[in-house]
Specification:
By secondary structure, the chain is an alpha+beta fold. It is built from 5 helices and 3 strands. The chain has a 3-stranded antiparallel beta sheet. A hairpin with a 2-residue loop joins β2 (59-64) and β3. α2 crosses α4.
């Protein structure tokens, strides 16, 4: 069963720029400067999106001198993937169930 925390992650991934950020972070740990270069987004806009991803638990920060690096937390995505796999399996096994209308 999906939890409120799972719903926060799904909402965070619902924005195209945040999904792009997550896709980039799946390949390597990046700082804000790298993410600005890769996405073309303004730094302030990007920072706001990164805050949403951090608050949802999808990314961690790693200070490095005057830069902050961002890395994906793959276990969060893996947990969500497992939840969706369980929903899909439930739908497969109960496809023939139909509640009668009153």
């Amino acid at each position: 069963m999906l939890t409120p925390v799972d719903a926060d992650v799904i909402r965070a991934l619902g924005d195209p720029l945040r999904l792009r950020i997550v896709t980039l972070l799946a390949r390597e740990t990046l700082c804000t400067t790298h993410l600005v270069e890769e996405t073309g987004a303004k730094q302030t806009n990007l920072s706001n999106h990164l805050k949403v991803l951090r608050d949802a638990g999808l990314v961690d920060t790693e200070p490095c001198g005057r830069f902050t690096y961002y890395k994906l937390r793959p276990e969060v995505l893996a947990g969500l993937s497992g939840q969706f796999a369980a929903l899909a399996e439930s739908a497969r096994t109960t496809a023939g169930n139909k509640r009668a209308c009153p």
